[in-house]
Amino acid sequence: MQNILQILAAKINSWLPWVIIPLMVEVLPAIFGFFILVTKKIRKKKDSELKYYPQITIIIPVYNSAGSLKSCLDSVYYSSYPCDKVEIFLANNGSRDESFTIFQDYQNSHADINIKWLNAKQGKSKALNMALFNSEGKYIIHIDSDGTLQKDAIRNLVTRFENEEDIHCMTGTILTNPEMIKDSKGFWHRLMQKVEFYEYAQAFLAGRNFESEFNSIFTLSGAFSAFRKSTILKTQLYNTETVCEDTHVTFQVRRLLKKRIDLCEKAVFFVDPIDSMKTLYVQRQRWQRGEIEVAHMFPASKGRKDSLLFRLLLFDHTFAFPRMIWYFALICLTFLDYPFRFIIISLCFLYFLYILSGFLYYLNIISYLTWNKELRNFYSRKAYVIFLMPAFNFIVYWFRLAGIINSIKGASNWRTKTLAEENKIIKDIIRDDIAIIKKKIEMQKKYIYRKEER
Prior knowledge:
Elements: H1 2-43, E1 56-62, H2 69-77, E2 86-92, H3 99-109, E3 114-119, H4 124-134, E4 139-143, E5 147-149, H5 153-163, E6 167-176, H6 178-183, H7 187-212, E7 224-228, H8 229-232, H9 245-256, E8 260-271, H10 277-297, H11 308-315, H12 320-334, H13 340-368, H14 373-380, H15 389-409, H16 419-453
Helix pairs in contact: 1-7, 1-12, 1-13, 7-13, 9-10, 10-11, 10-15
């Protein structure tokens, strides 16, 4: 009996660390975050309505945006914020399509709103910086040209700024467009987009919402962010040496200027849902590469033991290296004579914990969507997606891990290789390696034949 207990204890001691890693890194923080967000919701005072509407500047980077530019401008024009208080800069980065014609037509048909076109041929960051220097608004709002604002997004954002003077920068809430998801054809395609919607909701209304309580938001959203002009002009502006200029600005404001960054949960910007796994692969790689580039630009300060790159790889929302540990530990368990049934039970236990985390996120997000009935209903009726999130996060993890690997051996570039292109490169490398091996085998054979002839 004693021997059995010793064997059982040894097995448990080997198994527990594998379970403890995800438990400590993901599950327990989710439970802790749930109570923090509940407390924040209860404690949060309602923002006072605006007594006057300050002048604002909206900067929209444009690059071959003819297909989406008009709908983006419409979302600004038909918003609840007065048009006469809005200045729009279209910062063109070498467009070759009909974007300028769209601008001209819109300017002629909407004379009551101030729209300007700026040309820059040295990249997106330079285009944004040019618009910043020419802006006149009290608040600078940056939105992408391939999305649309929810009707009250601008007003809610400015209201939060006016009510809380210690907030210097804000990120809006980015969600994939529910109407486009509803109109999507194909069951599996639509299901993938619903899962992505849940991922965005978790990332902003749970993840960044939690981070804002501790002024630790890792990155302002490049698709929708806002600044006090007096703050953004004190930074080094948008950096031209990274594909993740929004993350770079975030760290300048929080780390260098030591100012507060917040999330406005009622300022929503809708982006197009992904159209394929190939698009998702390219997108997540680019995000990961950009974050690592910025991490290299902000090394640990003197007197601080933490490394931003170390914390990024360990504690960003992909949990890159902790996940690598327990994914590969799973393989190791099979070589340590653990019964297959035991491993399956362990996986089911972890899956249950992930579902529990997802359900807590679900409750938090529902509570933060009470201000918009349509969004709340769309989200609440897709609760079954919670059961698919662990699998989706598993796939996204490997995509972003590929971004980490590619960032090591590749230069900064918006052009990221697709999955098909990388498969071709791998096949070419394998073919070349096999050719080298064959060549060496032939050389060895010739050497042996010559030796035998002698």
